[in-house]
Amino acid sequence: MSNILVYELDNKIYINLTNKCTNDCIFCLRNDKDDVKGQELWLDDENSTAQDVIKQLKNFELSDEVIFCGYGEPMLKLEVLKDVAKYLKENYPNIKIRVNTNGHANYVFKRNVVPELKGLVDEFSVSLNGVSSEEYERLSQPKFDGAYEEVKKFIKACSDEGISVVASVVEGYKGQHLDLEKCEQICASLGAKFRAREWIQGGY
Ligand code: SF4
Description:
Blueprint: E1 6-9, E2 12-15, E3 35-36, E4 39-40, H1 50-57, E5 65-68, H2 78-91, E6 96-101, H3 105-109, E7 123-127, H4 133-140, H5 147-160, E8 164-171, H6 180-190, E9 193-198
Parallel strand pairs: 2-5, 5-6, 6-7, 7-8, 8-9
Antiparallel strand pairs: 1-2, 3-4
Bound molecules: iron/sulfur cluster.
The site of iron/sulfur cluster has 11 residues, from loops.
């Protein structure tokens, strides 16, 4: 088997850097499925380099947008992500680069990494997943304490840096509903746009 580091979905190109994550969300797709539309995103190992990703990128036609999002938290591979984004910006300057993240990176790396991504990432989509730490912990099952506050701080760090940031929630997981109005207020207070993504069983 070979590692699928780059895959295509609905005419967009996605990059799957890792299977590690500091959350264990109850709605995480990888709990239910081994693939996204037939593309197996479980990796054989965690050793892939930026060159490995770039090699696979060359097999695809790149047009509008490239999204770092796979079966794991892409920001855990910060240096690889930065190198790949740099390659894309240098070779495909018109392509939008988005990172879908759980927003834990500044906690993990013990520094504000957002300024390092200015000019490389056009938009962050950060999983807010709740209006309180209790709700966040129930839905996202983070592997460290204080994660909800870290997520909010990360969102604010993005907007402070002038990088577009969307904070998202998964709405309606197995009939569980969030206070979307309050979520939106929290996003606005952090300088983020808000997106509620409806949970679809076995969806993506
Ligand atoms: S943050 Fe994303 S990859 Fe990590 S457990 Fe949650 S849904 Fe899955």
